[in-house]
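Try this one yourself first.
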């Protein structure tokens, strides 16, 4: 596989969460490096998280594993009952089907940069720990936790 020209990989800002859940991640910038390189089973994303922004809503996956590696800046890793500081060179792993939601928050002034790596599974469901949001396996998409679809 040839070298990936990172500068040519499109940037995607924000998320596809339904309103109002999209607001804390509205400034997040993602470049899908793995997709640009033709990967289909593994996602590798270069993430830029500006001051005050979240990586996602706090969540956990049934069939997908995640790994983050901090390249620059400082982020707070929030889990069910803990917060930990992650700085450049730190990493964290999230095994599948462990019901302890996680996300990252940038409480610093500078934009943080990190790699977000994870497996893909069409059987995956995602539970959002703190809000009324659930993502069912493809192609169902987002719903309330009672199963009612978002508009």
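Now uncover the answer:
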């Amino acid at each position: 596989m040839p070298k990936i020209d990172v500068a040519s990989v499109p940037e995607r800002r924000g998320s596809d969460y339904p309103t109002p859940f999209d607001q804390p991640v509205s400034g997040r910038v993602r470049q899908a490096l793995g997709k640009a390189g033709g990967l289909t089973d593994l996602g590798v994303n270069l993430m830029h998280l500006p001051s005050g922004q979240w990586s996602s809503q706090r969540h956990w996956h049934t069939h997908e594993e995640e790994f983050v590696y901090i390249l620059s800046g400082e982020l707070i890793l929030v889990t069910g009952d803990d917060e930990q500081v992650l700085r450049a060179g730190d990493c964290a792993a999230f095994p599948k089907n462990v019901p302890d939601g996680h996300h990252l928050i940038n409480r610093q002034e500078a934009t943080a940069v990190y790699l977000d790596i994870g497996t893909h599974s069409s059987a995956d469901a995602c539970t959002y720990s703190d809000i009324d949001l659930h993502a069912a396996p493809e192609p169902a998409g987002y719903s309330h936790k009672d199963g009612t679809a978002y508009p």
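Discussion: The chain has one domain: 14-135. Residues 33-36 form the longest helix (4 residues).
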